[in-house]
Target: Potassium channel domain-containing protein
Amino acid sequence: MRTLGEVGAHMAYNAVLVGMLIMYGLFGAFVFRKFEATERVSVSDGQPGISRDELLVDLWSGKDLDFDAWSVQAKNKLDLYEEGFNPESSISAEWSLDESWLFACTIFTTIGYGNITPMSTSGRIFCILYGFVGIPLFNVVAVSLGSLITGVIQFFHSTYEKRKRKIVAETHKKDDFDSEPLASEVNQEGNLTFKSVLSMTVAYLAAGTLLFSLWEDWSLFEAFYYCFVTLTTIGLGDYVPQNMHHTVFFGGYIIVGLVLVTMLFSTMEEEISQWFDKIKKAAGITKHPQEDKKDL
Model:
């Protein structure tokens, strides 16, 4: 991407892809919540059908308090008891829309925290189908976003280089310019360098560390540990955000962060391959004759 028009077109295309991914995440959140809500209600319907009043009379048997005083005390305790087993309360705690959205994100990004899982057969079947479609969709979005980030940096680098050359030409210092190589964020093939991607990833992890430590009341190390485990898709699930007021941010942070980490690992693989090639060359290890024929 060398022109502003190309950058704008690529950004519009990626906006459509990200919008599709968000809609897919919301679709999954609604379906998972529907299936798991139905499962929890059906489990609750299987409990003994004794009425509240009958239970109070049974609890009253053999008590020394007068009935009015005891019934108030017993009802308060029963309210606390029923709140803990109320199916609606359980749904809102584990399968709220925010929690379901975050769960859907962990499916198509393959993070898989494991803090909540589908319990119904319908939910599990849907989880298989949802991941089967969602994982390739996310990979397409991730590759496209990575290309956009590279393109934007290439555009600004190219613009900077052209302006600097123009200034040098106007000031008649071409010889000095040619003797001073430009520091570049891209290599000769036009790809981002390892150092540039590493710098962006570290900055992104640091920003997430600060925000999560503030919102989740974690230490800086705990927040950094969560960000790293999440963005590398290790997804142990020992630390999971509890403040669901920032769920949209969580989803966005994960998606963009996975793109950066994927780019980082890709450039690391290139660096490691080049390093091993140098070792092979120094050791006098040559390619197999068949490999040489393929290169020809």
About this structure: The chain has eleven helices and no strands. The mean pLDDT is 79. The CA atoms of residues 203 and 213 lie 15 Å apart.
